[in-house]
Specification:
Strand content: under 5%
Order of helices and strands: HHHHHHHH
Helix content: 55-70%
Structural class: mainly alpha
Number of strands: 0
Shape: elongated
Largest sheet: none
């Protein structure tokens, strides 16, 4: 069973660290606070909706009573674990490093085809770009409905949880385009990494006066095999990043369950006295 997701800070997500490990560039930390950046991302209408979610009206509002059960919370945790396991398996079971049926098969170079093109164009990132995009679509299709399901579960709970669900709905809608734009840059960064590894491979061949052998690219220690391992790590990091909002909602629900259990225990002790 998948372990719980690690707590992720805004400037220290696993995806940021994974991408940072692929470049030697020293990128300075942003001097803007998260609140400042969020203000730039939200439009006027989004800001109003966010304000309403954070400051619900009190007149005539019906405050849901806590109806959380440990069984409901466990069911949501299991649903997230199943989604994470299925998507991670799709990334790991690629049909190449782990032979067998693959939902999305990792591309491999065709030595015969590579010999027919110019030597400087033998390595093509396009198949790996399409491969990464296919996994991103897979994640989006499976995670979005799960997030909506968890939100719905929170909406029927205590007022604080219902407000959190409303806030998540606003943030999800307001930042969806921004998230798509940011995640769309990940394949481009991997493309540059692909070129760096291929250039280093070509330089080594020139230095050692060794003929290239496309069949060895995906063998252990081969430049393309190393790149594909890096790409797999980035995909898994992106998966955990996409699941963070769901993990946060479920964690809040777990806290409500723990609070209810503690209150029931305290009431039981009081009744017995």
């Amino acid at each position: 069973m998948t372990q719980g997701l690690a707590r992720t800070h805004i400037n220290g997500s696993g995806l940021v660290r994974a991408l940072g490990g692929l470049t030697s560039a020293d990128v300075p930390a942003s001097k803007q606070s998260f609140a400042d950046r969020l203000g730039q991302w939200l439009g006027f209408a989004d800001a109003l909706t966010l304000y309403s979610a954070l400051n619900p009206g009190s007149s005539g509002d019906v405050v849901p009573s806590p109806v959380t059960t440990s069984r409901e919370a466990a069911a949501l945790r299991q649903a997230m674990a199943r989604a994470r396991d299925a998507l991670a398996d799709s990334i790991i079971n690629d049909g190449v490093f782990k032979p067998g049926p693959a939902r999305i098969e990792l591309p491999t170079p065709d030595p015969a085809a590579a010999e027919k093109v110019a030597e400087d164009k033998a390595a093509d990132f396009a198949p790996y770009h399409r491969y990464y995009l296919a996994h991103q679509r897979d994640m989006a299709v499976r995670i979005a409905p799960l997030r909506a399901t968890v939100r719905t579960a929170l909406q029927g709970q205590a007022s604080a949880l219902a407000r959190l669900a409303a806030l998540d709905a606003v943030m999800d809608q307001a930042l969806a385009a921004r998230e798509r734009d940011l995640l769309a840059t990940v394949p481009a960064l991997l493309g540059r990494r692909f070129e760096q590894r291929y250039d280093a491979h070509r330089a080594t061949l020139a230095e050692t006066q060794t003929a290239d052998d496309v069949a060895r690219w995906m063998q252990p220690g081969g430049w393309l095999a190393d790149f594909c391992r890096e790409m797999q790590s980035v995909l898994l990091a992106e998966l955990d990043l996409r699941l963070q909002p769901i993990a946060g909602l479920i964690s809040a629900l777990d806290g409500e369950v723990a609070s209810e259990v503690a209150n029931e225990a305290a009431n039981e002790v009081t009744r017995k006295q």
